[in-house]
Specification:
Elements: H1 3-12, H2 14-20, H3 25-46, H4 52-64, H5 74-85, H6 90-102, H7 112-133, H8 141-158, H9 160-165, H10 173-178, H11 191-212, H12 221-243, H13 257-268
Helix pairs in contact: 1-2, 1-3, 2-12, 3-5, 3-6, 4-6, 6-7, 7-8, 8-11, 8-12, 11-12, 12-13
Length: about 270
């Protein structure tokens, strides 16, 4: 496997990286190629200053060369190779690129509908791509979309401080207003109101997650364990945030390597 795609993946997504190592070799290579593309583009819009010219170039190369798959960018070529091999829908790639472009001009989301529009492209369509890579039936698609949604929403809650420093707020402004939260700066936030808000939104994540996990029955065991491990890692993170919501201002909440190993043991037993 190309070491470049492994480096890109590992540097940008610890939990997905370690989970994906458990896929069979042929599947793992496709997953790494997919996520190196996704993470590379994510870097373009998360870097300060943003590299919109590179985002535009990747978009053009992806869309124009969807059929041929021949470009002068290795990471794009890998993605297009995987897309053709697994019969990705072109609109999935376009939805992803649209959400990434939103990061170059949209700073705040006021309604849940707006947040879900972003999540559709940034996470749900990636779930659909994974369904194709894993060779699953269409019945699994709705659950894969929901799994992507739940995990992305958990990221929004976990990364409040990181996103604020980038000038972004993905959580719906209307929900914050319901709790009377006027600021997401640690020194200005009302701790009691913030904790109530965070716990309700973590519960929303768990509701989506529970529904998504009903789709595990459509995944053969040989490729199910990595999916279960990813789910368990996110649930661990969400539980820790629910216990102490204010900690999101001080650290990026995620499991340690020993904790990931512990979660792996449960995953191998098929426990979601």
């Amino acid at each position: 496997m190309d070491s470049d795609i492994e480096t890109i993946f590992k540097q940008n997504s610890t939990s997905y990286y370690y989970s994906s190592l458990l896929f069979p070799r042929d599947v793992r290579e496709d997953v790494f190629k997919l996520y190196s593309y996704v993470r590379k583009i994510d870097d373009f819009v998360d870097d300060l200053p943003q590299e919109k010219d590179k985002l535009d170039r990747y978009r053009e190369l992806t869309v124009k060369n969807w059929e041929s798959g021949q470009t002068d960018e290795k990471i794009v070529n890998y993605f297009l190779e995987v897309a053709r091999k697994n019969n990705f829908e072109k609109e999935w790639a376009e939805a992803f690129l649209n959400s990434m472009e939103m990061d170059t001009y949209k700073e705040e989301y006021e309604t849940m509908e707006e947040s879900l529009e972003y999540i559709r492209g940034s996470a749900e369509v990636i779930g659909l791509m994974m369904v194709r890579i894993l060779g699953l039936d269409e019945q699994a698609e709705q659950y894969a979309e929901l799994l992507g949604r739940s995990m992305q929403y958990c990221n929004f809650l976990r990364d409040i401080e990181e996103d604020r420093k980038l000038g972004r707020r993905y959580l719906p402004g209307q929900k914050l207003e319901e709790y009377g939260i006027e600021s997401l700066e640690k020194e200005n936030v009302d701790e009691e109101k913030f904790e109530d808000f965070m716990r309700e939104e973590i519960d929303r994540y768990f509701e989506w997650q529970r529904e998504a996990e009903k789709g595990l029955k459509y995944i053969p065991y040989r490729v199910r364990v990595p999916v279960i491990l990813s789910s368990r890692i996110y649930k661990y993170t969400a539980k820790k945030i629910r216990e102490d919501p204010m900690r999101v201002f001080d650290e990026k909440v995620r499991p340690s390597k020993p904790e990931i190993f512990k979660q792996l043991i449960f995953s191998l037993r098929g426990k979601g």
